[in-house]
Specification:
Two copies of one chain form a homodimer. Chain A is about 40% helix and about 20% strand. With about 260 residues, chain A is α/β, with parallel strands linked by helices. The N and C termini of chain A lie far apart (about 65 Å).
């Protein structure tokens, strides 16, 4: 295929992958920006191709990221800045993106030890929050993040970018509520929920295995999830202060409920 | 003054307040969006005027926010959507903003008990992160947030908005490094710093009073601050995962170092 045709083909794929349906149909996602591309390359996630601009190759870190891709056997297709920006999904494109394969892990196929440290995202709409939650879960040693309906697609480019590589350190999957509950029951993993009316997290003894559900900042957990939660936990908060950002709250709860934390 | 002249005057003030210099010269700031305006009204911070659109007044929560301002004796000037957007500093303006007085609290005037729970922001550039840090500090019972040079202005409209009312629950001020260190020494408050190479935070006993410094996600703490830190603390992290978002990391550290937390 000519250079031009190859470029056009991958530009079309990248543009198409801005839509969730296209990502799901092709089980592909886009990692955008130098840091995301570095992380996906390092993770050994299969990468189909990468798009880079000439400007990116003039930058030292950018050129190194492209060289690492080539060493991994990934074709780096050079495109113009204008073409790149038409395919990019972030506000300040850095001139590099990789088209990679979504590691498909249906909830029903996860092993009990993979479900033993799970963060459940219950209708978290904001992509930046979803990304930060995945990053936080990875840093704090969770093994799985499950996105329930109403949550931004975890393979959306903005989510992947704000997760700063978090996706490649744990299992990220989505599930219907019923399928999640079935899998947790089968694996004997209790489901706890974050809720302002719950028990103060610094007074509870965390179970050996745990799935923690966090909800939308405004609305809290959905009715279906609430009904399956065996323990609600809350943070000790200053009276009168409305709430914490959901990623900050989840970070503190996961820290407080970490493994081996006896009272 | 005619209605038109009053509107033009406050529109000019609001537009001017997008610049940090203008905020500092006039010691005024802009609270934008329904939630920020609700919080600033509730806080009894002196408000000079508010700008609202007709569209805002057609919304139930918007109309209630404007009514609360009027009850507090604040003039709500109605402007067109186009005029409002020229004065707004956020991406999706909601049609309401309040022009309020910055509570000026120079670092040298703070009492020892006000400095006893302080979060220090060391060159945190991103306004969203600064706002989330102020929100987090407020929720976790800190009494003061100090912005060091290189940090986004805490009275920037984007910061005020992402802090979700946090500014009105604690003291927010900026300071030069030397002035902060002098004030902490005088108040006998130790300065600790967040650093990946520090002692694991779950193994240290927090002092009764504490100032905690957090730095830029990439660069860490500045040399001047590092030199004055008496203890570096770190979070237990999964190996290979680069880092946490600065607001999430600060939230966990402030929780782990909260008052009365014995080991």
């Amino acid at each position: 295929m000519s250079r031009k045709k190859t470029a056009d083909r991958w530009l079309t794929v990248a543009r198409d992958l801005k839509r969730r349906k296209a990502r799901e149909r092709n089980t592909l996602f886009v990692a955008e920006g130098i840091r995301s591309v570095e992380e996906v390359t390092r993770s050994h996630t299969p990468i189909q191709a990468a798009l880079v601009t000439r400007e990116l190759l003039a930058d030292k870190r950018g050129a190194a990221a492209a060289a690492a891709l080539e060493r991994a056997g990934v074709e780096c297709v050079t495109v113009t800045e204008e073409e790149f920006n038409s395919a990019a999904d972030t506000k300040a494109p850095q001139g590099i993106l990789a088209i990679a394969e979504v590691p498909v892990r249906p909830i029903g196929t996860l092993k009990p030890n993979e479900l033993a440290r799970t963060l459940v995202l219950d209708a978290i709409q904001d992509p930046g929050n979803v990304g930060t939650l995945i990053r936080t879960a990875a840093a704090l040693g969770m093994r799985t993040v499950v996105a329930l309906p109403g949550t931004a697609d975890p393979w959306n480019a903005k989510v992947v970018r704000s997760a700063a590589g978090g996706h490649f350190h744990l299992i990220v999957t989505h599930a219907e509520v019923g399928d999640l509950l079935g899998a947790l029951r089968h694996a004997n993993v209790p489901l706890w929920g974050a809720d302002a009316s719950g028990r103060a997290v610094d007074t509870v003894t965390p179970p050996a295995s745990l799935a923690l559900a966090v909800g939308n900042e405004g609305a809290g957990l959905t009715t279906d999830v609430r009904g399956a939660v065996s323990e609600f936990v809350a943070l000790p908060m200053t009276p009168g202060v409305e709430s914490l950002n959901v990623a900050v709250a989840a970070g503190i709860l996961l820290y407080a409920l970490r493994e081996g934390q006896a009272r």
